Amino acid sequence: MVRLRECSFCAIKIEPGTGMLYVKTDGSTRWYCSSKCKKSDSMKRNPRKLKWTNRYESKR
């Protein structure tokens, strides 16, 4: 069965055969859909403040 994964930063669904798996030194894993998400996460950006993510929270 095909397993869809979710990007750890922006919450976009990742299809099999795409994306990047990052394994931290403590053994935890993170999936990224693009290098943009990986770089944003390493710079400790908040995905809730970026409009291009699915986790964006508008202030209505």
Tally the helices.
1
Q: What's the CATH first level?
A: Mainly Beta
The share of residues in extended strands comes to 15-25%
- Listing every helix as H and every strand as E from the N terminus to the C terminus, the arrangement reads EEEEH
Taking the sheet with the most strands, its summary is:
2 strands, antiparallel
Counting helices, strands and paired strands, the structural category is alpha+beta
Q: If you consult CATH, what is the topology?
A: Ribosomal Protein L24e, Chain: T
CATH architecture descriptor: Roll
- Molecular shape: globular
Physical arrangement of strands within the biggest beta sheet: 1-2
Key terms:
globular, 4 strands, alpha+beta, two-stranded antiparallel sheet, 1 helix, Ribosomal Protein L24e, Chain: T, 60 residues
What is this entry, summarized?
The protein is an alpha+beta fold and 60 residues long. It has 1 helix and 4 strands.
What would your notes on this structure say?
- The protein is of the alpha+beta class and 60 residues long.
- Helix content is 13%, strand content 20%.
- It has one helix at 35-42; strands spanning 5-6, 13-14, 20-23, 29-32.
- The strands form 2 sheets. Strands 1-2 form a two-stranded antiparallel sheet. A two-stranded antiparallel sheet has the order 3-4.
- The longest helix is centred in the middle third of the chain and has 8 residues, at 35-42.
- The protein is globular.
- The mean pLDDT is 93.
What is the element layout, followed by pairings?
Elements: E1 5-6, E2 13-14, E3 20-23, E4 29-32, H1 35-42
